[in-house]
Structures are given as C-alpha cells and as structure tokens.
Specification:
It comes from Pelotomaculum schinkii. This is Transcription attenuation protein MtrB. This protein is mainly beta. It has one domain: TRAP-like (Immunoglobulin-like, Sandwich). Helix content is 9%, strand content 53%. The longest helix has 7 residues. It starts with a helix and ends with a strand.
C-alpha cells in the first residue's frame, strides 16, 4: 500500500520556460534507459512533471527555471 502511494504521489518538479522551444524529455526507469515522452514549451509556459514508477529522469534543453522541494535553479545563458 505504501509503495503504491509513493508511485502515485512521487516527487514533482515545476519547469518554467524562459525562452521559446524548450524541450523536456522523460526517461524511463529500468535496465535500459529510454526516452518515453517529450514536450516543447514556449516562453512563459509552465509544466509540472512527476517522477513515477516509469519516469526516473527528466532531461531539459533550453533556458528554464526549475522549482523542486530542494530549491530552485535557472539554467545558464
């Protein structure tokens, strides 16, 4: 039960695009890491992403502000 709850309420990150054309790619969990989802954001758009039983990593290309429970950061210019 506790494991199922974690999978549903895994850690979230907030990604705010600081420029047009930001790419966000979800990477799978398991023996082989693969791309499983991608999104494009334009300046000012926000995406809320969650780490789940399927998503173990998120790759971001472009200038963004990233908010997590550990703090916030911005990519370099």
């Amino acid at each position: 039960m506790l494991q199922e709850m974690w999978e549903i309420t895994g850690e979230y990150v907030v990604i705010k695009a600081l420029e047009n054309g930001v790419t966000i790619i979800g990477l799978t969990r398991g023996r082989d890491t693969k791309f499983h989802h991608s999104e494009k954001l334009d300046k000012g758009e926000i995406m809320i992403a969650q780490f789940t039983e399927h998503t173990s990593a998120i790759k971001i290309r472009g200038r963004v502000e990233l908010l997590t429970k550990h703090g916030s950061l911005k990519t370099d210019d």
